[in-house]
Amino acid sequence: MTNKPAPTAVAIHELIAGRWSPRAYSSEPVSREHLHQVLEAARWAPSSYNAQPWRFLVFDRSVDEVSFKQAFATLVPFNQGWNAPAPVLIAVTTHTLTNKGEVNRCAPYDAGAAAMALVLQAHALGLAAHQMSGFDPNAFRTAFKLPNDVDVIAIISLGHYGEVDKLDPVLREREKSVRQRLPLAEIAYGGGWKKVF
Ligand SMILES: Cc1cc2nc3c(=O)[nH]c(=O)nc-3n(C[C@H](O)[C@H](O)[C@H](O)COP(=O)(O)O)c2cc1C
Question: What global pTM score does this model have?
Answer without folding.
Answer: 0.98
